[in-house]
Amino acid sequence: MPLAPIHYNLPMVMRITSRGKAIAFFITLGALLVGLAIAVSVSYIVISWRQVVPLVLGIIFLGCIIAGMVLNTIFLVREVRRNEQQDSFLNAVTHELKTPITSIRLYLETLERRRVDDAHRHDFYRLMLEDTDRLLGTVEQVLKAGEVRHRNARKNWQEVNFTDLVREALDLSRLRHNLPTQAVHFGSEPPRHITLMGNREELRTAVANLLENAVKYSGPNREITVDVLTPDLDSVVLRVHDNGVGFQRAEVKRIFKRFYRVHTRATAQVKGTGLGLFIVRAIVRRHGGDVTAESDGEGRGSTFSIRLPRVYRV
Predict the structure, then answer these.
(1) Quick check: helix, strand or coil at residue 268?
(2) Do residues 228 and 236 lie in contact, with contact meaning Cβ atoms separated by under 8 Å?
(3) Average pLDDT, the chain
(4) 3 state DSSP class of 217
(5) Cα 55 to Cα 50: distance, rounded to the nearest angstrom
(6) Which of residues 21 and 230 earns the better pLDDT score?
(7) CA 116 to chain centre
């Protein structure tokens, strides 16, 4: 049975390395310029300490120069990092689109040029459908990332049974990845009726993205625990804990940013667009809630929690 080719993106690795060198260069240059400005300012103060007006004006002027150089260095470093994230996003999206298209084309060419028995033909159809789902998922992620930034805050809101929604997303995640029940399971039986006000499709997307993230970064021996908690009458918490690759604490502030992906040895082979968690945060915040992430470090798993306001029913 033919298999889709594997692509190794060495140019992307080289670009990331060059961007790291560029960041180091700008930081070093900025530090040298600030040091030089400080040295000049100290010299000027020593020379002009008896002349009050020129001394004060010189200190103010040199202070502005130092502040300008610091801000300019910060801006340049941020731009380099932003460009790096966009390059990473474009590379990921290109791979996510090109790989299934190449695979589908390969199967179609095989079916066209060779006689294939029924068993192999059905396998080809199944694999092509899986590749089509992968393509559709990538396109939906990109479109959803644009929608969540511009959609009206309370469009198509209604009462939503959050427990049923999470249960459906959990079952769909098992089915999509062909996982056993113990791989993705509830830690404890969730409350039956938890009502939220919101857009059902958006909330389903947020929960599905959180589960998809846990599945992707948990490796082959997945153990993902999902809990729906009601810490008080006014809120509900969805907690997704996995035993996957985890992340450093320094990554917490950036992990929900658009295009950002954690880069470690364990995540090198994990494909994605860097939009999933960004979409989760945008949806949750529009619904008046918040999302947090915790991890004890690389290889120690992670826990993502969504807190949303609920509609209490007696």
Answers:
(1) coil
(2) yes
(3) 77
(4) coil
(5) 8
(6) 230
(7) 41
CA distances from 78 to 19, 71, 184 (A): 11, 11, 38
Rounded Cα distance, 174 and 211, in Å? 10
- The single-letter DSSP state of residue 220 is S
Residue with structure tokens 């006689």? 115
What pLDDT score was predicted for residue 2? 41
* Buried residues in 123-151 as b, exposed as e (16+ CB within 10 A): ebeebbeebeebbebbeebbebbeebeeb
Helical ranges in the chain per DSSP H: 10-48, 52-113, 118-150, 162-177, 200-216, 276-286
Q: Where are the domains of the chain?
A: 1-150, 158-309
Predicted confidence (pLDDT) per residue in 209-244, tens digit: 899 888 888 877 888 999 999 888 889 999 999 988
Q: Strand pairing partners for 228?
A: 238
158-309: CATH number: 3.30.565.10
Record the pTM: 0.61
User: Binning pLDDT at 50, 70 and 90, where does residue 312 land?
Assistant: low
Q: How many CB atoms are closer than 10 A to CB 173?
A: 21
